[in-house]
UniProtKB/TrEMBL annotation:
It catalyses: N-acetyl-alpha-D-glucosamine 1-phosphate = N-acetyl-D-glucosamine 6-phosphate. This is Phosphoacetylglucosamine mutase. Residues 496-550 form the Alpha-D-phosphohexomutase C-terminal domain. Interconverts GlcNAc-6-P and GlcNAc-1-P. Pathway: Nucleotide-sugar biosynthesis; UDP-N-acetyl-alpha-D-glucosamine biosynthesis; N-acetyl-alpha-D-glucosamine 1-phosphate from alpha-D-glucosamine 6-phosphate (route I): step 2/2. Keywords: Isomerase, Magnesium, Metal-binding, Phosphoprotein. InterPro entries: A-D-PHexomutase_a/b/a-I (IPR005844), A-D-PHexomutase_a/b/a-I/II/III (IPR016055), A-D-PHexomutase_C (IPR005843), A-D-PHexomutase_C_sf (IPR036900), A-D-PHexomutase_CS (IPR016066), AMG1_II (IPR049023), AMG1_III (IPR049022), PAGM (IPR016657).
Length: 557
């Protein structure tokens, strides 16, 4: 690297020195997160990483999102979107960590130079690089986006493009689309979502239209970006009467007592909802609109809700997709299947046990990965159709390129032979689904529209959906400890291998509860250990979680 390049890196690092208290950043489950005001150095350095990643990939677009998603409004974070639209390749995380924690400008320079050498990245502007940046609505967002741009610009020749205020999944979608040579503006995103949703509604069987479900849908926008975007386009969404609460335009505080994380964890009515919403189908987004759950308020005198979490969204999608595949393949087909499909279903340890039983009972195998979209997504890519959801509402349905092109030739074959046949329509539904649901990452907005389309297709009310299976009561707790990373887990986080003896204590507690299940793991987004417990009653789940939390507290201090 020439002198100019060295000087540019040193200058950027000098502008944003690491905090004097020696706080360490870790890329974690979803990028770097901390209090917004303290995020400058990590964000600047993530900008450098993103620019180098793009250079490494021959100038393909890479993304940076400034968000702390479901975390409180004072926090902020930074996440790198890889060129395929997914999360940053995991083998670059150690570099991102090392850079974020470099103690001074010289150390930072040395780490970059060494890494560029190892990865064969030419510095000094002879390789091109472009980074698309976006942020959510947090008050520190504008400042941090500017810091990220400075980080990108510290790599000579890299171009930073500010895409503005977006939902996290919109930026993932844009990066993916751009690198595939597809239309990639925000207008294109909205058109694709709106058009494919309309197409799915047009494919609702005529006999189902008769028992048309209530078209009123109330959406909790978590006072974040998702509500704002929905307000922008809701008039163009056919067939639905959408009302947005916590839209992000009013006084409410981001994620505070509202949003998908609150609704799923607390299972009570979020702020911003009133007696007029009782009994209606409600959806809840998180602050950057990459999580989706549904709920219904039971009565105006009760704070409890009926919750439909990510597991039940997954189950609904699974049924819909399987039905379409069955239609295409014909029931009595003894020969080869028309469309042989490798169908994968991926969950994490947080999946409610009743959902996993449900999926197994309908003949599906479920693969488990550790928590974090980056793990689930990678697994889902192995299938023709891979569907993943975390219980907290992060998830999507991935269609392989090969499968989509098979579907395309099948639909044109059907349309020349038997246009309008049930097979033709089923293939069209799957194609429209692959257009609607975000292929880069979980997306509350497009996920919600797929839910709505499937409910219409099935002629199902919210109650029908709830009745798929009954969730086992569960409880989640957080425990603050000295060093959460002293807990090491195995078996997709379902068992602890360190510290010694903890798993035996957990097993001992579980054995006292019918349908008891419990695990602990260090959070990758907060400085806490998470405890999850499930049992046959609320009281039992609460007590199991509490007892295990006490063991964690006692052993880890
Ligand atoms: C992020 C990840 C999710 C994960 C969640 C909680 O969500 O993208 O995959 O489930 O953190 O992770 P942890 O339990 O490790 O703190 P979000 O919505 O905050 O981006």
């Amino acid at each position: 690297a020439g002198g100019d390049q060295r000087a540019a890196l040193l200058a950027a690092a000098t502008l944003f020195p690491p905090p004097p208290d020696g706080a360490r950043f870790s890329y974690g489950t979803a990028g770097f997160r901390a209090e917004g005001a303290a995020m400058g150095p990590a964000v600047c350095r993530a900008g450098v990483v993103a620019a180098l990643r793009s250079a490494k990939l021959g100038g393909a677009a890479v993304g940076v999102v400034i968000t702390a998603s479901h975390n409180p409004v004072r926090d902020n974070g930074v996440k790198i979107v890889d060129a395929d639209g997914g999360m940053l390749s995991q083998d670059w995380e150690p570099f991102a960590d090392a850079l974020a924690n470099a103690p001074n400008p010289d150390a930072l320079l040395q780490i970059v130079l060494q890494f560029a050498k190892d990865e064969d990245i030419k510095l000094g502007g002879s390789q091109s690089a472009q980074v698309l940046l976006a942020r959510d609505t947090r008050p520190t967002g504008e400042y941090l986006l500017d810091v990220a741009v400075k980080g990108v610009n510290a790599v000579i020749g890299a171009v930073a493009v500010d895409m503005g205020i977006l939902t996290t999944p919109q930026l993932h979608w844009m990066v993916r689309s751009k690198n595939k040579g597809l239309k990639s503006s925000e207008t294109d995103y909205f058109s694709q979502v709106i058009d494919s949703f309309r197409c799915l509604l047009e494919l609702v069987p005529k006999d189902k239209e008769a028992d048309a479900i209530n078209n009123r849908l109330i959406v909790d926008g978590a006072n974040g970006i998702g509500g704002l975007k929905l307000e922008e386009i809701k008039a163009k969404i056919s067939g639905l009467d959408i009302h947005v609460r916590n839209s992000g335009k009013g006084e409410g505080i981001l994620n505070e007592s509202c949003g998908a994380d609150f609704v799923q964890k607390e299972k009570v009515v979020p702020l911003g909802f009133g007696p007029e919403d009782v009994g209606f189908r409600c959806a809840s987004f998180d602050g950057d609109a990459d999580r989706l759950v549904y709920f219904r308020i039971v009565s105006s005198s009760d704070t409890r809700i009926d919750l439909v979490d990510g597991d039940k969204i997954l189950s609904l999608f699974v049924l819909f997709i399987r039905e379409q595949l069955d239609i295409i393949n014909g029931k009595d087909n003894k020969g080869n299947e028309v469309l042989p499909t490798r169908f994968g279903v991926i969950q994490t340890a947080y999946a409610n046990g009743a959902s996993t039983d449900f999926l197994k009972n309908i003949g599906l195998e479920v693969v488990f990965t550790p928590t974090g979209v980056k793990y689930l997504h990678k697994e889902a890519l192995k299938y023709d159709i891979g569907i993943y959801f975390e219980a907290n509402g992060h998830g999507t349905v991935l269609f392989s390129d090969h499968f989509v092109s098979q579907l395309e030739s099948l639909t044109s074959e059907f349309s020349s032979k038997a246009a309008g046949s049930s097979q033709h329509q089923a293939a069209m539904r799957l194609l429209a689904t692959s257009q609607l649901i975000n292929q880069a990452v979980g997306d509350a907005l497009s996920g919600m529209l797929l839910v709505e389309a499937v409910l219409q297709y099935k002629g199902w009310s919210f109650q029908n959906w709830c009745d798929l299976y009954t969730d086992l009561p569960s409880r989640q707790l957080k425990v603050k400890v000295q060093d959460r990373n002293s807990i090491v887990t195995t078996d997709a986080e379902r068992r602890v291998c360190q510290p010694n003896g903890l798993q035996e204590l957990i097993d001992g507690e579980i054995s006292n509860y019918s349908h008891g299940r419990c695990f602990v793991r260090p959070s990758g987004t907060e400085d806490v250990v998470r405890v999850y417990a499930e049992a046959s009653s609320e009281e039992a789940a609460d007590s199991l979680a509490k007892r295990v939390a006490q063991h964690v507290e006692r052993i880890l201090g």
